[in-house]
């Protein structure tokens, strides 16, 4: 059982979505909560922030917060999501670059991307000679060279040139076709002439890429025939994600700090490691060890998103018995051009699909707020469902938003799949004697001892009954029995 401290209903708080109205919610604090208990709470419209759990009172709030989820096994990406994925793949392939902006790059990435001007000119000359031979007009965008990160150098050399891919794309735009290997071979021969007697040597050349090593930087045995080298990287950029425990790390905190300042306009002196740790690390969810059904375990995790081995974004996730719940996401402002919010969600959906089972299939996205533009993107992940805050049934979002006369307070009547269904019996209190139910089922703690309500004196019993009577309608009948209430 999970021990909870009831906070009760909080009203009159400033709305964090519209910034002008007021919100209300019922809250509790729990230091150690089992994942199945939290999942049950979530299915009643609750969310967590650190060890604080809350359920919005929609009738007393300006903005209506509706729990949203999606069955990842039936995910259908829309046009924008496909576009984001394609843009990201083009970035990895070197065919698109980050647009110029005024944001400073972190020093480590700056150093990693430096290409000597002398080498750039040699590559540019080789590209010009190649496009002239192929009858293609030269543009600067065809000269694509990048400095490899240190953890890639031993495998792929110090520099990677993907100009053959860019040239091939240019040719296709003209409605023509040329063999990519042929283009790369012409480019390689032109480059060999340019770098002859220089400190740069060709390490490998295959699949549209030419990798170079620089004397004095890395000692690698250069193959006699570069085209025959094996295990050649197919992308000038690499992407990978790693699932780790939700422990504090300085690297992740620095990105969080950058994100909060740049995106949410937080003041620097308002951000500190302790606040970050309390908010997004060391969750109160009790970890469950890996099993055959859940090889990663259950509980709270951080999904680390890395480009070229460098951490650029973090997804804070709760992995629950029925699916993955997205808690928070933050990223380095320098990758804003890649639409990281959408892309990370796609990666999280792919994670669910990779581990899909009859139980583990849902992607929980927190709250959908129809009146908040920044939150409406969640409804674009199809097929999504909203939790009806009155009958506690899942309603297809397409039905919920087609007619908004319900003001998002009662959704089940808007859909033919739910309009004739009875209220979730777990949340139906119409024929229930609340006082008797609480007396029979409540477990409370006083001075670390567990008592029943009837163990208290009459005055104490009435106080506790009044408080617990408020909790029952927001947690549900079955879950009410499984919680222990601290007083």
TrEMBL record:
This is Arginyl-tRNA--protein transferase 1. One of its GO terms (molecular function) is arginyl-tRNA--protein transferase activity. PANTHER family: ARGININE-TRNA-PROTEIN TRANSFERASE 1, ARGINYL-TRNA--PROTEIN TRANSFERASE 1. Residues 14-83 form the N-end aminoacyl transferase N-terminal domain. The keyword GTP-binding does not apply. Residues 251-388 form the N-end rule aminoacyl transferase C-terminal domain. Involved in the post-translational conjugation of arginine to the N-terminal aspartate or glutamate of a protein. This arginylation is required for degradation of the protein via the ubiquitin pathway. It catalyses: an N-terminal L-alpha-aminoacyl-[protein] + L-arginyl-tRNA(Arg) = an N-terminal L-arginyl-L-aminoacyl-[protein] + tRNA(Arg) + H(+). The keyword Kinase does not apply. GO terms for cellular component: cytoplasm. Its EC number is 2.3.2.8. Pfam families: ATE_C, ATE_N. The lineage of its organism: Eukaryota, Sar, Alveolata, Ciliophora, Postciliodesmatophora.
């Amino acid at each position: 059982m999970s021990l909870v401290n009831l906070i009760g209903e909080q009203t009159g708080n400033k709305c964090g979505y519209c910034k002008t109205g007021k919100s209300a919610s019922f809250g509790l604090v729990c230091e150690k909560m089992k994942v199945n208990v939290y999942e049950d709470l979530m299915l009643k419209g609750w969310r967590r922030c650190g060890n604080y759990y809350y359920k919005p009172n929609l009738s007393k709030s300006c903005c209506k917060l509706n729990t949203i989820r999606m069955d990842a096994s039936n995910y259908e990406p829309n046009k924008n999501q496909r576009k984001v994925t394609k843009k990201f793949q083009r970035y990895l392939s070197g065919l698109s670059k980050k647009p110029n902006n005024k944001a400073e790059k972190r020093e480590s990435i700056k150093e990693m991307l430096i290409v000597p001007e002398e080498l750039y000119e040699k590559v540019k000359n080789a590209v010009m000679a190649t496009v002239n031979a192929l009858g293609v007009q030269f543009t600067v965008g065809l000269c694509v060279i990048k400095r490899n990160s240190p953890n890639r150098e031993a495998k792929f050399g110090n520099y990677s040139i993907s100009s053959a891919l860019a040239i091939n794309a240019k040719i296709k735009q003209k409605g023509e076709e040329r063999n990519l290997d042929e283009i790369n071979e012409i480019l390689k021969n032109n480059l060999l002439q340019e770098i002859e007697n220089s400190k740069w040597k060709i390490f490998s050349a295959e699949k549209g890429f030419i990798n170079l090593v620089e004397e004095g930087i890395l000692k690698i045995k250069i193959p006699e025939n570069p085209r025959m080298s094996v295990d050649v990287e197919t992308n000038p950029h690499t992407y990978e994600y790693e699932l780790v425990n939700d422990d504090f790390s300085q690297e992740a905190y620095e990105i969080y700090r950058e994100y909060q300042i740049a995106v949410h306009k937080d003041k620097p002196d308002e951000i500190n490691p302790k606040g970050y740790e309390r908010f997004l690390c060391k969750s109160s969810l009790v970890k469950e060890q890996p099993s055959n059904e859940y090889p990663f375990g259950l509980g709270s995790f951080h999904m680390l998103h890395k480009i070229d081995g460098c951490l650029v974004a973090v997804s804070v996730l709760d992995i629950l018995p029925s699916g993955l719940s997205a808690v928070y996401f933050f990223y380095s402002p320098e990758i804003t051009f890649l639409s990281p919010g959408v892309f990370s969600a796609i990666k999280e959906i792919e994670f669910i699909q990779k581990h899909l089972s009859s139980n583990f299939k849902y992607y929980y996205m927190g709250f959908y707020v129809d009146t908040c533009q920044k939150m409406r993107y969640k409804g674009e992940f199809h097929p999504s469902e909203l939790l009806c805050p009155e009958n506690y049934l899942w309603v297809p979002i397409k039905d919920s938003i087609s007619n908004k006369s319900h003001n998002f307070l009662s959704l089940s009547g808007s859909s033919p799949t739910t309009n004739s269904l009875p209220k979730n019996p777990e949340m139906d209190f119409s024929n229930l004697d609340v006082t008797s139910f609480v007396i029979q089922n409540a477990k409370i703690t006083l001075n670390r001892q567990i008592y029943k309500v009837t163990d208290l004196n009459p005055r104490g019993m009435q106080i506790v009954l009044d408080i617990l009577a408020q909790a029952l309608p927001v947690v549900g009948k079955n879950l009410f029995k499984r919680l222990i209430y601290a007083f």
